Amino acid sequence: MNYLSVPNATKADRILVVDDAPDNVLLVQTILEEEGYEISTAENGFSALSQIDKSAPDLVLLDVMMPGMDGYEVTKRIRQNKELPFIPILLITAHDSASVVQGLDMGADDFIRKPVEMDELLARVRSLLRLKHSVDERNSIALQREDFVSRLAHDLRTPLVAADRMLTLMQQGALGEISPQMSDAFGTMVRSNKNLIALVNMLLEVYRYEAGRKSLSFAPVDLRQLITEVAEELAALADVKNLSVNLDLSESAESAPIAKYPGDRLELHRLLTNLIGNAIKFTDSGSIDVSLKAANSPAYTSFKNQPLAWVIIQIQDTGPGISAAEQTKLFERFSSGTHKTSGTGLGLHLCRQIVEAHRGTIHVESELGKGSLFTIRLPC
């Protein structure tokens, strides 16, 4: 579609003109409507924000100097509203370059000085609308790609689950007696199929988080009990490699948040399983140490100016360590590292999504040959 020739477009671009001077509004409105744009107007910042909340325009043409709420504040509030699509903002200013810098820092995309030259105004409007359409097209393609991945993963899961049930039945001899060699072969097939199911499930979870379609159910969680449960579930994997899994679970008087942490138990279980499982997977000898404690941090205060309580979970391994270069992208999607047993690169990315959904942080400290320490901080 050629957006340079607006009258030929299938849908006219909508521009919101915000200015407290009626003469300026009328002039700009007349010029832009002659070019085929659909124009709405607002005489102050409050009215502009109200209109934008009801129906987002394709471009905002915004005067800087207005009573009540100036153009900088309007720009700031538009950019703070994460529910809005991308809306280019063109500031009109009569001030010096310092005001331009302030406007751009607030999130404006371009500016034009008074007195306004109409040819320049039209050129800047066309330029910003091209940017708007480019961003919208990119976002549309990204959404289509994510939807395709979600549908593909969902469609893959159905036959994999069916195959898992059938293979398990065959391994158990439900369809007839099988030889020891066939039993071993079925065992390999069952394990491989379960790995595929786990991969597809993880891909679906990553998609749900990134698409904003993940719903969490928050309730009091006993983190001591949860960590103990995960460690017991993974004990067999550690035993195969002769690794010890050591738990240090706080029992102090300050540990009340640990017993009733407000979180999603299923997602926290997934988080701990991924991290402790990774520690076992990448460690060939030594131990995995998991610690849990509550602490107050004076660096972060609540609305009553009191130190916030934090739950801190640390997982230390004696594995090969992670290079500084790999640490910088460790939690990115599909960043699988260079270790021989590295996976798809989705597990740690999903861990970060879960932690951030609980408004916490996760980071790693590691040195090659000296193991890795993952630290999770969850605010109470």
Outline the structure in words.
It is a single chain. With 380 residues, this protein is of the alpha/beta class. The protein has three domains: 6-116, Response regulator (Rossmann fold); 140-210; 219-379, 2-Layer Sandwich (Heat Shock Protein 90). 48% of the residues lie in helices and 20% in strands. It is built from twelve helices and twelve strands. It has helices at residues 22-34, 45-54, 71-80, 97-106, 118-171, 180-210, 223-233, 235-240, 256-259, 265-282, 324-327, 347-357, and strands spanning 14-18, 38-42, 59-63, 89-93, 110-113, 219-221, 244-249, 261-263, 287-301, 307-317, 361-366, 372-379. The strands form three sheets. It has a five-stranded parallel β-sheet with strand order 2-1-3-4-5, sandwiched between helices. Strand 9 and strand 10 (307-317) form a beta hairpin. The longest helix is centred in the middle third of the chain and has 54 residues, at 118-171. The two termini are 51 Å apart.
Summarize the structure.
The chain has helices spanning 22-34, 45-54, 71-80, 97-106, 118-171, 180-210, 223-233, 235-240, 256-259, 265-282, 324-327, 347-357; strands spanning 14-18, 38-42, 59-63, 89-93, 110-113, 219-221, 244-249, 261-263, 287-301, 307-317, 361-366, 372-379. Helix content is 48%, strand content 20%. The two termini are 51 Å apart.
Task: List its salient traits.
alpha/beta, Rossmann fold, 3 domains, five-stranded mixed β-sheet, single chain, 380 residues, Heat Shock Protein 90, disordered N terminus
